[in-house]
Amino acid sequence: MHLNWQRMNELFGQLTNILPFDFEECCTYLSGLSDEDKAYIYGIVGGTPQYLLQMSDKLSVEDNIKNTYLNPTSFLYEEPLNLLKQEVREPAIYNAFITAVATGHSRMSEISTKVGESTTVCSGYLKNLIDFGIIRKETPYGEKVSKKSIYSIEDNMFYFWYRFVLDNASVIARGAVDIVYKRIEAQLNDYMGRVFEEICTQYLWKLLIEEKMPIEFTSLGRWSGNDPRKKAQTEIDIMGEQNSTSAIFAECKWRNENVDLDVLETLVDRSGLFHYTKLHYFLFSKTGFTKGCMDKAEEMGNITLISYKDIVKEEGFYDKRRY
Fold it and tell me: All domains of the chain, ordered by start, with CATH?
């Protein structure tokens, strides 16, 4: 079965305010693609039906990118700018804020310096972008108010466009799409790191709903902060607590190599910054795990190893290595 264009059009036509599909839902409409390419397409356009309709499951990821983002006549080529023009009276200013966040200026002070506005002014613009669903504000897990909050791009289509299209617009306009695609291809796995974290987070929520979680967390989030033992900043991809004594910790790696023991040991070490007594760890990998990692997981007994293929395969969706 290929992408159900008619059904997608029906859904989009009936529900103009339909919420974006999650990754699992997107997979049902991208059934003609390989499992790996499904993740890339989700990372490129997200779950918004109108953007998914621009993708073809009969084409490679490369051709889909070239036909849309690298094609000046396509719908997606100027979509972010067109949306801003429709929604706000100062599109150039909002564009500057999105560009700042997309290029790694994630803290309020950094954004303020980049756009040349006070933090008070920045706060208003960023709030509007959060309301539009373009930007998200993330506070370290477990902290309600924090000066350590960071801003990132919420929408995958915006994230991809501002990461790869904006700075290459002049090259694209001259038809040198192969040059631009090579630049994209070289960074695509790095780009997918954040997307894979999103997919893994959705997967953990699904396990909870299906009552297949060893610890029934109440929320999930990213944590970042200071490690006083090493006097250095550190972070945890995903964590969630059930109560003051029980929590899960997860690390997600979108790499073309098996996850080794050092990744597991680092996650366990970072969990020691907290005072939970009942812990369960999840390691997610694009490809799989080394023997050393699997042996250690079996020895510890509270580790779940999940490869990407375990997430996407229809049968045995929860067939994961739990030790």
Answer: 79-168 (1.10.10.10), 196-322 (3.40.1350.10)
